[in-house]
Amino acid sequence: MAIRSVGDRDNPIGKDGLYTFLSALTRGTDEDKVVKISDNDTVALVTAGENFAGVVRTISQADSLAGVQMDDWAEVSFTHGAEPSVGWNYLVGGTTAGTVKVPTYPLIKPVNITVSSGKTSGASEADTELVGGTIIGIVPTGNQDQLVDNIALGTDGSVTVTLASAATADNTFTVSVLKAPAKQAKKYLVSKVDATNHKCVIWLG
Amino acid sequence: MVRSIGNYDEVGCSGYYSFLSALTRGTDENKVVTISTDDTVALVTEDENFSGVVRVISQGDKLAGVQTDGWAEVEYTAGDELMPNQVDRDFSGASAWTNNNINSYDETNDLSITANAKDQYCYLPVASAPTIIGRRYRLTFDVDNLVSTWTIKSYDGTQTIGTVSAGGAQLFEFTAETTGGLRIVANTTTSSGDFDNFSLSEVPSVGWNYLVGGKTDGKVKVAQNAIVKVVSVTVPVGGDELMPNQVDRDFSGASAWENVDINSYDETGDLSITANAANQYCKIAATSVPTVAGRRYRLYFDVANLTSTWTIKSYDGTQTIGTVSQNGTNQYLEFVAATDGGLRIVAGSNTSSADFDNFSLKEVGVGSSEEDEELIGGTIIGVYSVTNQDQLIDNVELDENGAVNIRLAAGATAANYFKVAVLKSKDQWPKAYLVRSVDDTNYKCTLFLGN
Q1: Which of residues 71-100 of A touch B (CB under 8 A)?
Q2: With 60 as the cut, is the pLDDT of residue B268 above it?
Q3: Which residue of B113, B341, B350, B437 lies most exposed, with the fewest beta carbons within 10 A?
């Protein structure tokens, strides 16, 4: 008998159209959940805010291999309150692992910063979503009474605005940060939304 | 029977698409290609988007079978430089590297370090070698005169990146567990070495990556600037000298200045002029003092032995640039040009007299970034100050060579530093590919080309 290639060798993994990956997913529990590539040739359930790769359809008896759908239409669960609409949607991992959601800020995140009266600088809180991002703009929101000398994105994702002189009154700004390429969300076509069961049908490619 | 294209010779293997090409059989198979012209593929070059992987090439080197879907293993190169400061890479100046407790530390031209105790170390801060947790990076550097071994760690010492155990070129690939920075740690009491030419770049990680043509044709790399690139622009206090001829500036020889009707005119060593009627003047043409209407300039000069006043005007007399009313060196008049240049020096009265010298014309309030092919056709979407802004900005423009020019409303008091965000032209945007595995021994990754 001919040796079967990877992807055909272990029923039920090698079903038509599924790609075989290593995994630690649980048979009988994790099927039909959304996964990411977590390590070489390995998939894991997608977690909040992460990009995903496909939908796990079959898991081997030993829970060590997974057959992943990476093309065509796939029904997936979405996080309640962040549901997609029919048409194109940015989608990332949802609040519950293995589900999806519509991210609030898929590419660019605005950050509000106040330089208090009498101070020369103000900073936003640390934000892992912004680590490695790029500042692309700043706009005053209410009052600016001093020139801005510097805007810096810290290694912890916080943004610091430094004025040329101490603020006469509170100076408020919104700084736009383009997220690092690896953290930018991808767009998917949604053909149907089941608001009752929190599921939608997306085009994987 | 007429066979279809894709099935008619050895090129038409199952699942491949046939293209014209000038690729070389036996050499270019398994390299990454781009569609270069109608029905034709060529090896992808740096920063280009690609189309697939060439798998078979005909004996005549005229046809190529290209895989454009499914999983494909491809070679990758280093990405763009991530260490922002050249001095931290090549020690050509004072760097951000800092000695903690290494016994002998010298960063003149290279980083020469000699320990006398284990675990002595020096470090580079996070901002000088930033990484993103979970992404993969390549660190390269050279080591000479190595004694014993050193360990390369993250800035905080929590992640070991690699061990330097032999001299020469070093290359470490690692998945970042911290936000970056470096630490060089002595492994023994005799560790010593000369480190130089550091470089940090991103390489493909499992998961989604923006990928483009790599530094070697036919390979890929991680695109550092997906759709937006931020460039630095410095507006100096004064720009380059715009008066092309030294003799017109310092009267060290026969100049292009010419007397019109000033009573006494002598340009030997300096420009000594004495009028006996108001409005007598001398002049110099626009070719010697060129300006562009609408741009801001400073005209510098020295004045001695002044009597009464002189008025500086444009060559054609239509624009008054300013009045000279006191002696002094390095005086300047700042003006926005209304003509294409040239000057007149006009007597303010019938007693006007002075010795002028050391003329200089500089455009002020303007700074530019370097030309950048990646930005040609792009769109400026933001500008902000870094370090200092002492004037308002009049204009930010992207020129046809991809350089960004900033013009201030007045000459800078001190150097003004800005960052400008440019949205790249759509055809320059890279594509995202899913990578399922990375072979960091052979520098290959397996990516999904599509369905």
Answers
A1: 71-72
A2: yes
A3: B350
- Residue A157: give its domain's CATH number: 2.40.30
Residues A177 and A112 in one domain: yes
B210 located within any domain = no
Pair (A195, A144) in one structural domain:
no
Domain for residue A8, yes or no? no
Nearest to B58, CA basis, from B19, B18, B6, B11: B11
B2 vs B14: CA distance, rounded Å: 18
Nearest to B444 by CA among B59, B168, B102, B73: B73
What's the angle, vertex CA A69, arms to CA A64 and CA A72, rounded to 5? 180
Domain count, chain B: 4
* pLDDT value, residue A17: 75
Q: Is the pLDDT of residue A99 over 60?
A: yes
* Res A84 pLDDT > 80: yes
pTM: 0.78
Mutate to test the interface with B, among A149, A159, A173 (most CBs of B within 10 A): A149
B68-124: pLDDT as tens digits: 988 999 999 999 999 999 999 999 999 999 999 999 999 999 999 999 999 999 999
What percent of chain A clears pLDDT 90, i.e. is strictly above it?
80
A22 with A96, same domain: the answer is yes
Same domain, B380 and B234: yes
Residues A27 and A88 in one domain: yes
Task: Say if A176 is an interface residue toward chain B (CB within 8 Å).
Answer: yes
The candidate with the shortest Cα–Cα distance to A164, out of A153, A154, A151, A176, is A151
Residue B14 has pLDDT above 90, yes or no: no
Q: Flag if A151 and B130 touch (Cβ within 8 Å).
A: no
A116: its two tokens:
């208090």
The SS3 call for residue B216 is: coil
Q: How far is B335 from chain A (nearest CA, A)?
A: 24
Residues B281 and B353 grouped into a single domain: yes
B191 and B135 in a common domain: yes
Beta-strand pair B52-57/B32-37 = antiparallel
Q: Which of B111, B300, B133, B264 is nearest to B192 (CA)?
A: B111
For A129, phi then psi, to 5°, come to: -65, -25
Tell me: ipTM over 0.90.
Answer: no
Domain hosting A57: range is 18-102+185-203
Q: How confident is the model at residue B224 (pLDDT cuts 50, 70, 90)?
A: confident
CB contact under 8 Å between A137 and B384, yes or no, is yes
> How many structural domains is chain A composed of?
2
* Domain extent for B374: 228-238+366-428
- Tell me: the pLDDT tens digits for A127-174? 999 999 999 999 888 888 999 999 999 989 999 999 999 999 999 999
Question: Coil, strand, or helix at residue B247?
Answer: helix
DSSP B248: H
